[in-house]
Amino acid sequence: MSGTEDQGRASGGGDGTRAVRAGLPEPVAYEPTLPGPVFAAHFHLPGEPTGPYTYGRDENPTWTHLERAIGELEAPGEDGVETLVFASGMAATSSVLFSQLRAGDTVVLPSDGYQALPLVRAQLEAYGIEVRTAPTGGDAQLGVLDGAKLLWIETPSNPGLDVCDIRRLVEAAHAGGALVAVDNTLATPLGQRPLELGADFSVASGTKQLTGHGDVLLGYVSGRDAEAMAAVRRWRKIVGAIPGPMEAWLAHRSLATLQLRVERQNATALALAEALRDRPEELGVRYPGLPGDPSHKIAARQMRRYGCVVSFTLPTRARAERFLESLRLVDDATSFGGVRSTAERRGRWGGDAVPEGFIRMSVGAEDPEDLVADVLRALDESDR
Ligand SMILES: *Cc1c(COP(=O)(O)O)cnc(C)c1O
Questions:
Q1: What are the tens digits of pLDDT across the range 360-383?
Q2: Separation of 90 CA from ligand 1 center, angstroms?
Q3: Is 208 a pocket residue for ligand 1 (Cβ < 6 Å)?
Q4: Atom of ligand 1 at shortest distance to CA of 208?
Q5: Suppose 357 and one of 101, 104, 105, 314 were both cysteines; which one would form an S-S bond, judging by CB atoms 3.0 to 4.6 Å apart?
Q6: How far apart are CA 7 and CA 9, in angstroms?
């Protein structure tokens, strides 16, 4: 399983080159470039069970290729980074939190992070773990770090699109002996590399822009600390939160177009954010890549690309609902990162501290002029 047999790493180069080759095995005559999914609950296993492939809940060759690929994107050219894939982003998130924390420990979570974090918080507290929260913006988590064992960062935050200074938070956390995990879902590894910024874990949902077609649930954890990663691996084994081989293979296949999708979607997201900013009415548009956005200064220092999610606020719930109904090229759906644009009134779920008219929009791979025109038309039509 050494990195040397891995073409993506050997080829170096830019993000597009890396994405198309990431995790591919050495060419074998008359074998496919990307080996197909290996469907196996068990493997032939004579004698001592030394592996690498013994039982399908522990390891699978299709995961191995995908894990190498994601590792190359999260930490290009770096040896010693281990990646583990999971059944979903929440499986990956839970694996880090529940494998690293014990009763009596303290963890710091964002107060404005992913929707399921409050559920996780309740479970952590039920196990006797103290949970503190603070907002992402203004690096406010610094204020509640004292004595913590683990700091969980989500930047840019979903759905508020606030950004915190990863390096600054890592420095403070490490000084106090805490590990740091960064939820890298929104940025993708092409947008941000938390391990290079000092984090101990980069954790993400691969369900979103990483795989980008809205047809796969996946999660992963990348980390450099062998002991910490061994605990995460053990958690995956005992909980069994494993991706199916077909999902893992589809995800790997999707990585080949990651750079293309990200470039297109993110460029259109910026164009849309600019068009919304230039409207006569005040929409409170947020996009970390928009100069002047409260997140932009720190984002520009630590991000290479700014994501495909744009948010803005319509005056009322009714207006937001009319707007969503008026859209023709944008599906009213949750999640984000897919090649087909989606938007939703985020307040319909409850739980996020957002106004009733808050719209979270995920920009897809449509032609930018078509998409921007559709959104501006729907804004006009819903203004009755
Ligand atoms: C979607 C999401 C998750 C959870 O991922 P699933 O694949 O749905 O389990 C975690 N964090 C963020 C920021 C997300 O957007």
A1: 999 999 999 999 999 999 999 999
A2: 6
A3: yes
A4: 1
A5: 314
A6: 5
Output the CA 212–ligand 1 centroid distance in Å: 13
80: left (phi over 0), alpha (psi -120 to 50) or beta: left
Residue 74 CA to residue 195 CA, distance in Å, equals 7
If residue 21 lies in a helix (H) or strand (E), which one and from where to where?
helix 15-21
Q: What is the pLDDT of residues 100-158, one digit of tens each?
A: 999 999 999 999 999 999 999 999 999 999 999 999 999 999 999 999 999 999 999 99
Sheet containing 342-345, strands listed edge to edge, beginning at the edge strand earlier in sequence: 309-313, 358-362, 342-345, 331-332
What's the sign of the alpha-carbon dihedral 253, 99, 337, 328?
positive
In the chain the domains, ranked by start, together with CATH numbers, are 7-255 (3.40.640.10), 259-382 (3.90.1150.10)
User: Using a 6 Å cutoff on CB, does residue 114 contact ligand 1?
Assistant: yes
Pairing status of strand 201-205 against strand 309-313: unpaired
The residue assigned the tokens 């779920």 is 349
* pTM for this predicted structure: 0.96
Q: Cβ(141) to ligand 1 under 6 A?
A: no
Please work out whether the CB of residue 83 comes within 6 Å of at least one atom of ligand 1. no
